[in-house]
Every structure is written in structure tokens, then in C-alpha cells.
């Protein structure tokens, strides 16, 4: 008598909205390439039901969750344990269930961004002047890993200045970090400007002075879209040396989550190529947030 086939290990992305997420495609490609018996689906959950749905997923035998907007900070409170990088960010994008049943929260957004910048795009960070626009969950996840690369300066500018100041205070002592509002950045041209705001969703660009962009400035939008995002469009008009969108961060944070869950880091190049070729079929701007949408 032949035994029933083993069911696949179950993973999912929980967030709202998630219907347009590329994560099932990315993890499906990784699973095929590394011969992992697993499935990855989307769970669309509004804020008030996150805990209930996440508990149910794990009670039903789920192995791991990715978490995206708007649940990353709630997820950090929900898990039993945080990895050091998730604790530092106070935000979780990857949850694993240990054999004991304990849930561990991790954050792979920062390492995903740094790998995309340094390995894929060959953008050096050490000794460079870096500006991040935005002070939400996306920024919290990447500040620690960026500071670990020892930039000469990491400036955080945000519409609500107090949120930028909170992050700078949290990471004070870890490197040269300053905070400001958009209009008050007065530091001349930066080497790298990263947009981590959701302004592009409204078709706008944070109102920073054009003098922050020089002929040698590289601009990176954590959001991604088929063509230019409002930020990459604006940056080109200011004469930026190069502009990039967040496809690579999306794929690299996913590869890092896959490593956390399966113990194997899949190759990312082929998936990234497929995704950026497929990307033009999408019609909307996707917000920052790494694991998500
Ligand atoms: P995420 O997890 O994607 O960072 P978030 O925590 O809601 O999401 O943060 C969104 C970021 O985009 C914040 O920095 C927000 O600025 P505020 O802190 O002032 O709210 C920023 N943002 C959203 N809409 C914006 C807009 N139209 N112009 C500029 N910044 C905007």
C-alpha cells in the first residue's frame, strides 16, 4: 500500500492590501529552484484581525509568515521572540514557527536593501553621504543595516519631523545620523538618496531641495512600478547620475526570508530578471515595504 503524499509546508504573506503582491511568484520560483516542498499564498487581513488570523495560520500548522503593511509593528509585539535585527527595527517582516511552537520575528528588509545596493547595483555605502526620505516602517527596517556599512552621514528626512528624530535618537551612537523635515535638509548634494515614503502612491514627491541631487547622486526608490515612479522621474529631471526602483530589494528580502525558513539562500538573479521583464505588465505603483506588495 502506498502512503499518502506529504502535504507541502505552508507559508503566506499577510497584509492589506496584498492582492497585487509578487511574493507568491518569487517564493514559487525559489522553491522550484531549490526543490523545496512548500506553498506560499496571500492572506489579506485588515489591522484589527491580524492577531486572530496569524494565530489561526500557525494553529493550522503553517510554518512561516511574511508580514507587510500595515502589520509590521503589530507583528513585533505578537511574536514570542525577536531576532536582534527585528528588535532593533521594532518591526517584523518574517515570522518562523520553531518546533517548540514558539514564534520568532525577524526583519529581512534591511539586509535585502543593502544586498541590492552593494551586490546587484554595485553602489558603495562606506564613507558615503546617504539621505533617506520617510520615517515609517520601511525606514526603521533599513537604518541599522545601512549604518553597519559605515556611511559618512545618514540623514533621515520626513514630513513629520518628530518621527525622523525618534529614529535618529534610537540609533544615536551607531554612526553619524541626523534627522530633519523635508524642507530643512541643508547638507548639499548626497551620494545616495533613498525614497522610503508612500508619497508616490499619491503621485507626489517629497518636497526636498533640488540641491540635494548633484551630478554624482544615485537615487533609489523602494517602491517599484513598470516605468518611472514619481520619485525616479523627479530625480532624473534633477540630473541624478542614476535612478533605481525597489525590485531588487523585494527579491533579496524574500531570498533572506527563504533562508530563515528553509536554511537555503536561493539564487536571485534569474527571478529578478524575470520580474523586471514582467514588471511592465503591472499597472500601478507599489508602496515601499519590502516583503510586500
Ligand atoms: P511604511 O511601512 O511603508 O514606511 P508608514 O509607516 O505608514 O509605511 O510610513 C509611510 C511614510 O511615508 C512616512 O514617512 C510618511 O510620512 P509621515 O510620517 O509624515 O506620515 C510618508 N508619507 C506618506 N504620504 C506622504 C506624502 N504624501 N508626502 C510625503 N511623505 C509621505
In summary, what is this structure?
The chain is an alpha/beta fold and 293 residues long.
Written account of the structure:
This protein has 293 residues and is an alpha/beta fold. The chain has two domains: 134 residues, Rossmann fold (3-Layer(aba) Sandwich); 137 residues, NAD(P)-binding Rossmann-like Domain (Rossmann fold, 3-Layer(aba) Sandwich), CATH 3.40.50. 35% of the residues lie in helices and 18% in strands. The strands form two sheets. Strands 2-1-3-5-6-4 form a six-stranded mixed β-sheet, with helices on both faces. The chain has a six-stranded parallel β-sheet with strand order 9-8-7-10-11-12, sandwiched between helices. α1 packs across α9 and α5 packs across α9. The structure holds 2'-monophosphoadenosine-5'-diphosphate. 2'-monophosphoadenosine-5'-diphosphate binds next to α6.
Question: Can you lay out the helices and strands and say which pair or pack?
Answer:
Layout: E1 9-15, H1 23-34, E2 38-44, H2 50-59, E3 64-67, H3 72-78, E4 81-82, H4 84-89, E5 94-97, E6 103-106, H5 109-120, E7 129-133, H6 137-148, E8 153-157, H7 161-170, E9 177-180, E10 192-195, E11 218-221, H8 230-237, E12 242-244, H9 247-262, H10 269-278
Parallel strand pairs: 1-2, 1-3, 4-6, 7-8, 7-10, 8-9, 10-11, 11-12
Antiparallel strand pairs: 3-5, 5-6
Helix pairs in contact: 1-9, 5-6, 5-9
2'-monophosphoadenosine-5'-diphosphate binds next to helix 6.
